[in-house]
Amino acid sequence: MGELSQQQRTVFELINPKKLPGGKKAKKGYQNSGVLKLNSMSVTEHPSFVGLLSAGLELNFAIAVDFTSSNGLPHLPNSLHYMNPHAPNEYIRAMQAVGGVLEDYDSDKQFPALGYGALVHGTPSHCFSLAGALDQSCHGIAGIVQAYQGTIANPAVKLHGPTYFAPVIRHVAGLAREKHFHRQGKEYFVLMILVRDCIACAPHGTLACIELGHVIPLNRRIVSQKSSVAMAVAVLWPSFPISDVSIQREN
Fold first, then answer.
1. Beta strand pairing status for 187-195 and 230-236?
2. What's the pTM?
3. Residue 94 has pLDDT above 70, yes or no
4. Which residues fall within 8 angstroms of residue 208, CB to CB, at 6 or more apart?
5. Read out DSSP for 78-102?
């Protein structure tokens, strides 16, 4: 990266074909529409995902589940939290679809599993652990599913609201920050937030993501795979630049 030598300095003429002889807008004596001077250049290497893993990057996965009342009472068949003995509900399918892929890239397979929007022992909570305490994790995706099923069956946890997951993001951002210092930036955090409806219907959580952008960069995209359950996938990596967040719906 830097200045080019005199021999390397290149000037490119900007030619409009329509103004050349025989063109629709031909002009007598036309030479060019200007010149582009290349004074310096830089080459930036973007390593592949496999290359980053080979260099010692550690992948971490965390998940947050929507426990707001808009999901419907868990004991009713039309509830998104209903435990059908013959088929997994949409939340479990989402956990398995994304977590099943990321699980193989996490060496210890210890995943924080969180919930938000519930009444826990009668108190509104927007960040509680499905495993018990906030410092406890689940082992593997099977452990997350088991903890989620246990939380739904726990009479002390009741669906409530609103859809507010800023505390979840702050908690996981804190975990990412802590590991960043201990591992000298070689940590890559993926937080998957499962939401009852489209992320646009959760303005508090969206604003929280924006506000936290200057603390822990958020990137990647939000993908709504189902009409009823959306997945917000945020990548938290303190040394990573902030990139755009887009919304995409897959049929």
1. antiparallel
2. 0.68
3. yes
4. 164, 165, 166, 169, 170
5. TSTT---TTS--HHHHHHHHHHHHH
